[in-house]
């Protein structure tokens, strides 16, 4: 006959006392992980931010490049740059029915069809 462990007879396998208990990490190891996180993550981020600020001071002129001729000529690009409120104002001025219930993509498509029909508007 086999010998059984006395702990098995008293408790079921689902008992939390039988489960393997995890031991917390030593405090020194946690502090080492914290230091490594600072060295490998935060310090390079800080250095990159400082470098970007240094480059900003050397630039001259506008922050953004001038708008391209294609942006001024293509109504698709102009509509993409408008907010939803501006799209709805434009739809109101063009007398598009039921423009308030349209999502942005549907409203943009409807505006584009109307605008391409009226070349003189743009």
If you had to describe this structure to a student in words, what would you say it looks like?
The protein is mainly alpha-helical. Among the domains are: 26-53; 72-117. It is 60% helix and 0% strand. It contains 6 helices and no strands. It has helices at 6-10, 27-58, 69-73, 75-81, 84-93, 104-117. It is elongated. The termini are far apart. The mean pLDDT is 78.
List keywords for this structure.
122 residues, mainly alpha, 0% strand
Distance between the termini: 96 Å
Number of helices: 6
Name the average pLDDT: 78
**Helix/strand structural class:** mainly alpha
- Give the amount of beta strand, in percent: under 5%
Describe the largest sheet: none
In angstroms, what is the radius of gyration? 33 Å
Work out the helicity level: 55-70%
Counted beta strands: 0
**Outline, from the CA principal axes?**
elongated
Order of helices and strands: HHHHHH
* Unreliable residue runs: none
Summarize the structure.
This protein has 122 residues and is an all-alpha fold.
């Amino acid at each position: 006959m086999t010998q059984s462990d006395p702990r098995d007879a008293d408790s079921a396998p689902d008992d939390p006392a039988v489960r393997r208990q995890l031991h917390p990490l030593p405090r020194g190891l946690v502090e080492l992980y914290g230091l490594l996180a600072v060295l490998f993550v935060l310090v390079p981020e800080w250095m990159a931010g400082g470098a970007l600020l240094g480059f900003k001071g050397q630039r001259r002129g506008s922050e953004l490049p001038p708008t391209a001729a294609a942006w001024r000529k293509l109504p698709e690009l102009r509509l993409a740059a408008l907010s939803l409120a501006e799209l709805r104002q434009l739809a109101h001025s063009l007398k598009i029915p039921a423009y308030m219930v349209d999502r942005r993509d549907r409203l943009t498509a409807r505006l584009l069809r109307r605008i391409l029909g009226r070349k003189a508007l743009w």
